[in-house]
Write a structure and sequence with these properties.
Layout (H helix, E strand, L loop, with lengths): L1 H33 L9 E3 L6 E5 L1 H6 L3 E6 L4 E8 L3 E3 L4 E4 L8 E6 L6 E11 L10 E3 L9 E2 L8 E4 L18 E5 L5 E6 L11 E9 L12 E3 L3 E5 L15 E6 L7 E5 L5 E2 L7 H4 L24 E7 L14 E4 L19 E4 L4 E6 L4 E2 L15 E9 L7
Parallel strand pairs: 4-6, 5-7, 15-17
Antiparallel strand pairs: 1-2, 2-4, 3-4, 6-14, 7-13, 8-12, 8-14, 9-10, 10-24, 11-13, 16-25, 17-23, 18-22, 18-25, 19-25, 20-21, 20-23
Length: 413
């Protein structure tokens, strides 16, 4: 009898163990769900640091990549990871901020930028702060005869103290710039080789450790903000303004050796674009130091390099191009408009056979796409005679143009 009770008790114990094991297994299966891995895209996020965007990563990823967590993202599963780099660093992270915090006078501050993945075609540099030493602003003769005469010139616009340059191993590099360019931007083509951003500070530089903050955005090949090939700047919107680097609201000076294009994205229903300026926002050159030619600044008077038979006094090279530019149609005057590509001088005007009045004044329009204004300058500013030459600050400021897009096409002349 005792033997029988023993086996009954053992059977009940085994049954109870099976029940408990099933409960544990069910509980374990439920626990697995609690620890399911949460995945989220590494998109741009707004950090809790004023004026900084970041990329959404897990906290451990952010730390491993050298970033700083600032606020949360992805429903608090991630942190908004901010990347800030200074001299002697490298990055392949989107939305990196390159600052001059570690700059030393008399040396170069460099950042190596490698594209984040194969889908990236460009980087965009936004100059959130950019205040380097100004280019040359004095009119001391440095070219030609030592005393004022035909062919004398100066170095207005040369970046002699500080420079900012970007390498482009797989395409055309942007121009070297200096001075004040806060609010401006640059696009740079990228490939498997890395780009290098270099800001050189002269020993007499006036630039501080907060001289620049440059936001670096990786632009994918399919992105709507990808600039057309050959565009160093890319603007959007039906209206807007564009200006030369170091324009400084008209108080700057045109920089040496500029060769780049500023483009405007065509809106879906747009057929043409018009550019216009006031009489005080366009100063590119004075061909042969003759004011009357400067006021007729278009076509063959522009882009004449150096001095020679055409212009003994020089001053005719700096210019912009607007492909197939013409007066706004229909014109309000009886004069017939003609198309030209080059514009220079001290006034911005469309070309007509009997006058140079635009409609409205100082307006040039085109149907040619992509919409672009290309800037060209040389490394000499001729200054004879002194009153009218391009080698004065007043005649060498660069330009600011406003634009508006139109759904109507311009009539062919």
């Amino acid at each position: 009898m005792l033997n029988f009770l023993f086996w009954v008790h053992a059977a009940l114990a085994l049954a109870q163990n099976d029940t408990n094991r099933d409960k544990v297994l069910r509980k374990g299966k439920q626990s697995v769900g609690v620890f399911t891995v949460v995945q989220f895209p590494n998109v741009i996020c707004t950090s809790s640091t004023s004026g900084r965007n970041g990329t959404c990563y897990t906290s451990s990823e952010c730390t491993a990549k050298g970033g700083s967590g600032s606020g949360s993202c992805a429903s608090s599963f991630g942190v908004c990871c901010v990347f800030e780099k200074s001299c002697g660093s490298s990055t392949s992270e989107n939305s990196t901020y390159f600052t001059s915090t570690d700059r030393t006078l008399g040396t170069a501050c460099k950042l190596t930028v490698c594209k984040s993945d194969s889908s990236v075609c460009q980087i965009r540099l936004d100059f959130e702060t950019f205040v380097l030493s100004n280019p040359v602003t004095v009119t001391t003769i440095t070219i030609g005869p030592s005393t004022a005469a035909a062919g004398t010139g100066n170095s207005l616009g040369e970046c002699q103290t500080d420079t900012f340059a970007v390498s482009s191993p797989c395409g055309k590099a942007p121009p070297v710039i200096c001075g004040t360019n806060t609010g401006e931007h640059m696009y740079v083509p990228v490939c498997d080789q890395c780009n290098e951003i270099t800001s050189s500070f002269g020993s007499s530089s006036t630039a501080t450790t907060s001289a620049f903050t440059v936001k670096i955005t990786m632009v994918e090949c399919t992105s709507k903000i990808k600039a057309p090939e050959g565009c160093t700047q890319y603007f959007t919107g039906t209206t807007g303004t564009l200006s030369t680097y170091n324009y400084q609201s008209g108080s700057g000076v045109l920089l040496h050796n500029q060769d780049y294009c500023a483009c405007v994205r065509s809106e879906r229903t747009t057929c043409s674009i018009c550019y216009y300026s006031s009489t005080t926002t366009f100063f590119m050159s004075v061909p042969n130091a003759i004011a009357a030619i400067g006021a007729l600044g278009f076509d063959t008077v522009c882009g004449v390099k150096g001095i020679g038979a055409t212009y003994a006094n020089g001053g005719g090279f700096d210019y912009i191009t607007i492909p197939n530019g013409r007066c706004s149609s229909p014109p309000t005057t009886v004069a017939t408009t003609v198309t030209v590509d080059r514009y220079c001088g001290t006034e911005f005007n469309c070309a007509q056979t009997t006058a140079i009045a635009g409609t409205p004044a100082n307006t040039v329009c085109t149907n040619s796409k992509p919409f672009r204004v290309c800037v060209h300058s040389d490394n000499a500013e001729y200054s004879f005679p002194a009153a009218d030459g391009e080698g004065t600050l007043a005649n060498n400021r660069g330009f600011q143009l406003s634009y508006f897009q139109q759904t109507v096409c311009q009539a062919n002349p």
